Amino acid sequence: MSRRLLVFLILLFVSGKLAFAQNKNAEEKSDPDSTGVVNSALLPSIAPLLLFDEEKEKDEKKEKKKKARKNIWFGIKTQRGFTRREIRGQSYYEYFNYTDAERNPDPYIRDVYWYNPKERAIKTSGYTRGSGYLLHGPYERIVNETVVESGMFYYGTKHKTWMLFDDNNVLQDKNHYSEGWPRESRITYYNQESKSIEEIIPIQYGLEEGNYFYFHEDQQIAVTGEYKYGEKVGLWTEYWDTNNEKAIRKREIQYQEEPYTKNFRPYIRAEWDKDGNLIYRKDI
Predict the structure, then answer these.
(1) Which UniProt keywords apply (predicted)?
(2) Who has greater pLDDT, 26 or 108?
(3) Which has the closest alpha carbon to 223: 249, 242, 205?
(4) CA dihedral in degrees (237, 200, 133, 117; nearest 10)?
(5) Is the pLDDT of residue 6 over 60?
(6) Rounded distance, CA 236 to CA 254, Å?
(7) Quick check: 145 and 167 in contact, CB under 8 A?
(8) Taking CA atoms, which of 19, 64, 239, 275 is between 20 and 30 Å from 155?
(9) What is the tens place of the pLDDT at every residue in 20-78?
(10) With 0-12 CB in 10 A as exposed, 13-18 as middle and 19+ as buried, what is 218?
(11) Minimal CA–CA distance to 163: which of 139, 135, 136?
């Protein structure tokens, strides 16, 4: 065999392997289930420390009056903003404070409120650094000249007491939050002394509402999902315990997209082994 032919065959073999590898990578990228290994803000996980400190709240109330005039809330200098809309002859106003302090929102909280200056609107999802400003401080929503909602934000999350009023400014509802967590939330612990969390069930108005979390004993996320009006909705995900080294999905269960959907049966959408290899996927 001549040297030229040998070189040609080697190059042909190498280029074939490269093409195969590229096609394989392309297929894996186009298939989100090709591996159970995922990038997750929750993993490796530092579980939230849910301590509803009443003494701390008393101290904050004393400081509130001193700093309100300077737009300083919870030790952070803020700016005031407002939005205005006209809908069917009624004027809707939102008055709020926001901060340009760089801070990643708590990944455990479902609704993070932020101000989008380009759209001049308040959003509850899609926040990234540089895209807008987290609400921080007092908030009021007014219809015509009547306050219909008021409360406080802490780095984009509802905090302290929130009140809802009718068109005659009569109090209709009152809720209490601690940095985005409803105070009614049910929390169980593996260890009460170290506050090693086992499960967080978000409760609002007496019903499950918000993001649900279950943890392995090493505090790595075990299960995530969402409740709406007391019903499981969307995709619920179970994770293997990898000692917080990486996030590997174990199983995904598909629930109804909206609560109280008739004739919907939850089903297992996909399963992976401990190495992240796909072992089952439902054909739809």
Answers:
(1) Signal
(2) 108
(3) 249
(4) 60
(5) no
(6) 6
(7) no
(8) 239
(9) 445 545 444 578 888 888 887 766 555 666 655 556 555 555 555 555 568 899 999 99
(10) middle
(11) 139
Structure-model confidence comparison of residues 11 and 152, the more confident one: 152
Query: Contact, 137 vs 73, CB < 8 A?
Result: yes
Is this model's pTM higher than 0.90 or not?
no
In one letter, which amino acid is 173? D
Structure tokens at 19: 């093409």
pLDDT at 237 over 50: yes
Residues 214 and 227: their CA atoms lie apart, in Å, by 14
Query: For the chain, which residues make up each domain, given as ranges?
Result: 36-47+183-284, 53-181
**Pairing verdict, β 231-239 and 247-254:** antiparallel
Residue 34 falls in which region: left (phi positive, over 0), alpha (psi -120 to 50) or beta: alpha
The one-letter code for the residue type at 6 is L
What is the predicted pLDDT for the residue at 271?
A: 96
pLDDT on residue 192: 77
